[in-house]
Structure formats: C-alpha cells, structure tokens
C-alpha cells in the first residue's frame, strides 16, 4: 500500500491550476509508527501505574483516617479513656465534632447519674440525723443526749467524707490522660503513705509494715493521685484487719510493671462481692460492726490505676485476709 499526500496549487489570483502529490509506500513509515506505538504504550503503562499507586495511597489514607475515628467511637461507646486521634483536613473537623458531642453527652449523663446515686446514698445518714434530732427534742438523760449528738456528728462527718471523695473521684474520672506525668520514686511515695495513715492505724492498734524490693523503683505519673490511691488501699485494709495486727505494703517489679500490694489478715472478700468491690458506692459491712464506708475509695483506686495505664485488683490470700494490688507501668 501507498500513502498519498496532496496539496492544491494556485495562481496569483487564487485559482487552482494543479495538484502536488507526494506518495510513499507504507512500509517505509511503518518503523516510525511502530516506534510511536511503543512510546505511547510505555508511557501509558507508566501513567496507569502512577494513577494506581496514587489511588492506593489515597484509599489507604482515607481508610486510616476513618479507621482511627471508628476505633475512637468504639472506645467511647465502651466507656474507655481515649484521646482524640490525630487526623487531617475534614476528618479533623469530624473528629473535633465527635469529641465535642461526646463531652456534652458525657457531662449531661455524668451529672444525672451522680445526682441519682448521691441522692440515694444521702438518704440513710439524713434519716439518722433527722431521727436523732427529733429524739433530742424530748427530755432524756445526759448520756442519751450525748449519744444522739454523737450520732448526728458521725453521720455529718460521713456525708462530708462522701462528698469530698465524690469530688476527688469526679476529677479523676473526667481526665482522659495525665497532662504532665512526672517520675515518682516509690520509696518516697510509701513514706508519705506511712505518715498519712499513722494516726488512723495507731487508733486501731495496727501497724504498717513496708517492704521495698528496690529503693530506686520509679513510675511515671501524678504523685498526689498515686499517694491518695495507696492511702485508700491502706485505709480499706485497716477497716477489715483485726486490732493489734500488721498491715503489709510491698512494692516490687512483676511482669514489667511495678506492683504495690497491700495485705491484711481480716476476713477477706466474700465470694458474692469479688466482682463488685471496685464499683462506685459499693461497700461491705465492717467486721466490728462499724458503719460502712462511702464506697468510693476502691473506685478511686481503680480510676487512678486506669489513668496511669495500670490496673487494680483485690483477691483473697491463701493464708487468710485480702490482698489489694495496684499495678503501674515502670517509669
């Protein structure tokens, strides 16, 4: 086959006077066409590959952004402490909107739940105060008057303690993370616990024995919260331990974490209560007949442990008594 290319020839007036034709066999330009096809095909494959890579990268980025928001939403639904993930563009706007919605909903539900539980827990001491006040209006002996006045004072102190602990617990529960964790030396922390509990234990003729595996054991966290959590564990052990006995507080490394154990020789935890001891407002009767606690101490311990990335446990000891453990990551 032959390829023809023609062009008209015109005179000065523009009239066609002839045609110039150039002809060339196709076999002569076939190599050029083949080379052009190869170039087009090669660059087409390159562009297709680039488009595929860009598409995969974009899909992976979108999937990662959506996946992080999905995991965040699932953690919030499960009631876990979780930090808003780092996202970009409109995903960041969506994440901030979710965080704002979560904060508003949690705040509203939190207030409603606490008002309900606090109202329920206040009924008993208020009823006791009212009954004692009514009896004090009647003639009675000085001994009975002093006894009822003491009951009013005791119930008032119980309500004050409950409100203080509730405020402390609310502060911990609202934190999603530690803002500025600092290195905390366990030995120094235990000395503070000894000082904070000395008067209470002396009144009950109990002794706090400290055992420390390593004087340089250190964790990262909030020293005030950790000290209060350990004080709560010692106070709880003191409530159930008999008079004239030792309460052991021990700190050692275990499975890559620092475990602070508080052991007593009391009656231990009843089987029916083993899964509820860390619940808010759950409290067991004291062996000596004293009134129950606010039921917030161990709940505070569990919240502090979770805030530090650790865990809190309470179990019965094989040789009697209970063992409370606060596990914290090594700092």
Automatic annotation (TrEMBL):
Main EC class the enzyme belongs to: transferase
Transmembrane segments: 40-62
Sorted UniProt keywords: Kinase, Membrane, Phosphoprotein, Transferase, Transmembrane, Transmembrane helix, Two-component regulatory system
Entry keyword annotation includes Metal-binding: no
SMART domains in the record: HAMP (SM00304), HATPase_c (SM00387), HisKA (SM00388)
GO CC, any one term: membrane
Localization in the cell: Membrane
InterPro entries according to UniProt: HAMP_dom (IPR003660), HATPase_C_sf (IPR036890), HATPase_dom (IPR003594), His_kinase_dom (IPR005467), HisK_dim/P_dom (IPR003661), HisK_dim/P_sf (IPR036097), Sig_transdc_His_kin-like_C (IPR004358), TCS_sensor_his_kinase (IPR050428)
Protein name stated in the entry: histidine kinase
């Amino acid at each position: 086959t032959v390829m023809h290319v023609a062009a008209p020839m015109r005179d000065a007036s523009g009239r066609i006077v002839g045609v110039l034709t150039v002809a060339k066999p196709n076999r002569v330009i076939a190599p050029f066409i083949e080379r052009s096809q190869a170039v087009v095909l090669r660059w087409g494959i390159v562009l297709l590959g680039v488009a595929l890579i860009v598409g995969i990268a974009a899909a992976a980025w979108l999937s990662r952004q959506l996946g992080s928001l999905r995991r965040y939403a699932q953690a919030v639904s499960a009631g876990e402490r979780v930090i808003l993930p780092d996202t970009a563009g409109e995903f960041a706007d969506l994440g901030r909107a979710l965080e704002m919605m979560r904060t508003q909903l949690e705040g509203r539900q939190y207030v409603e739940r606490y008002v309900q539980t606090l109202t329920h827990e206040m009924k008993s001491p208020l009823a006791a105060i009212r009954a004692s006040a009514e009896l004090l209006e009647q003639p009675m002996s000085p001994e009975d008057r002093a006894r009822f006045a003491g009951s009013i004072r005791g119930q008032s102190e119980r309500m004050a303690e409950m409100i203080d602990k509730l405020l402390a617990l609310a502060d911990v529960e609202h934190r999603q993370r530690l803002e500025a964790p600092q290195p905390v030396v366990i030995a120094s922390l235990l000395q503070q616990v000894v000082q904070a509990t000395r008067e209470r234990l002396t009144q009950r003729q109990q002794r706090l024995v400290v055992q420390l595996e390593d004087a340089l054991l250190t964790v990262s966290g909030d020293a005030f919260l950790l000290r209060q959590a350990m004080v709560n564990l010692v106070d709880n052990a003191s409530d159930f331990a008999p008079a004239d006995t030792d309460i052991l507080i021990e700190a050692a490394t275990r499975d890559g974490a620092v475990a602070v154990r508080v052991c007593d020789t009391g009656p231990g935890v009843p089987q029916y209560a083993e899964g509820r001891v860390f619940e808010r407002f759950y409290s067991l009767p004291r062996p000596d007949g004293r009134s129950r606690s606010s039921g917030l101490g161990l709940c505070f311990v569990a919240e502090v442990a979770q805030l530090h990335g650790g865990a809190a446990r309470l179990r019965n000891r094989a040789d009697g008594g209970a063992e409370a453990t606060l596990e914290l990551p090594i700092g």
